Each structure stands twice: as structure tokens, then as C-alpha cells.
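Quick entry between incubations.
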Amino acid sequence: NAGVTQTPKFRILKIGQSMTLQCTQDMNHNYMYWYRQDPGMGLKLIYYSVGAGITDKGEVPNGYNVSRSTTEDFPLRLELAAPSQTSVYFCASTQWEGDGYTFGSGTRLTVV
Amino acid sequence: AQTVTQSQPEMSVQEAETVTLSCTYDTSESNYYLFWYKQPPSRQMILVIRQEAYKQQNATENRFSVNFQKAAKSFSLKISDSQLGDTAMYFCAFMAGNTGTASKLTFGTGTRLQVTL
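Done. Structure below.
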């Protein structure tokens, strides 16, 4: 099993550009999440989903959008990229709370 | 809302020695889970150990063990016989259980551990 796969691993965007961070999991997990990691700040929740067709905002959703059309995929869309969105983005999934999360390998995004 | 506090931004330990990383949390929940994640330079987030709040026995995974003090809301990680491969950022994390929400993890700000020769 591949687990949680994120693409791309690195990306540089210009201010105002848009892009989609892809996330796919092959474990049939219902719960999926997007976090961003800024230096010295830990991980902050952007959006999450409890199943196909259901998404909700986390702690820092502004400037982002998500969709969950299938159990496997949970893409994160950045519209009108800003320097404040420079960060490392992690996708994660779980089926049961006690298991903790399985994380993807992260995407390092730089907005210039 | 839950908060997780890691008061040690950086720590250093010599190889083969023991080190303890601190974590405190604040919650009004009675049922919850606590986790320690390791993030090496590769950036991958790796689950080290987990603790269920309703279990009094401290969790152990090989060289990693926790000291879970529920009344004090403390959840420290002890690494025994430290190895160079333990060099990483360590995150403490909290998850409320059975809340009907989405099993969201709340993370601390991390402790950077350096293992030296």
C-alpha cells in the first residue's frame, strides 16, 4: 500500500497564481485533513473531511478551498497565492481516532 | 478548545543517554488520546507512541515511553539509549475522543532534539 500520496513535493508560485495540491490515500479512510506547518508554529488545520461530499473549515481556512468527490482524493486549492501562504503542507488520513494519522510526505510551497 | 504546550524549543542529548521531552495540554474532555510524532530532516511525520486517556498504564514502544499524568495534564516522552537517528523535531498532539467531530489533532509547537556523539 502506498498510504497517503501528496504531489507535488516542491513548488514555487508567483503572487496571484493559483494551484492545486493533490492528496490521495489508498487505505479507504473516511477522515482526511490538510495542515500547514510554519517554522516554530507547529501544524495548523486548514480543512478536513469526514467522508466523500463532506468538508469543513479548520483553524486557518482563509485563502484555501477543498473538495472531496471520492473517498480517496482530497485536493487543496490555493486561489490568488500570497506570500503568507509560503509553508509546508501536509495531507493526512485516519479511520479511527485512536490510530492517529497517516501523513503524506508534505509539499513545500514558496510564494514569491 | 484544546491547547498543547511544549516548553522546550530545543534539546540536546549524547548518544546512549536518556532524554525527556515535556508536553502539557489543556482540555475539558474526559475521553481523549495523546500522541508523539517525530519529524526527521526528511520532513516525514512518523507516529512514535500514543496514549489513551482512560488507560492508567503508561505506553511503551521499545526505547520510547511516556509519563502520562492525567490530573496534571502532562504527557512527557522519554527516549532511552538515544541514537543518532533520533535527531528530529518531536511534536506532542491531542485528539478528543467520541465527540462526534472529525478526530482532529491539535499539535504543540515542537521540540527540536539533537543527538550528539
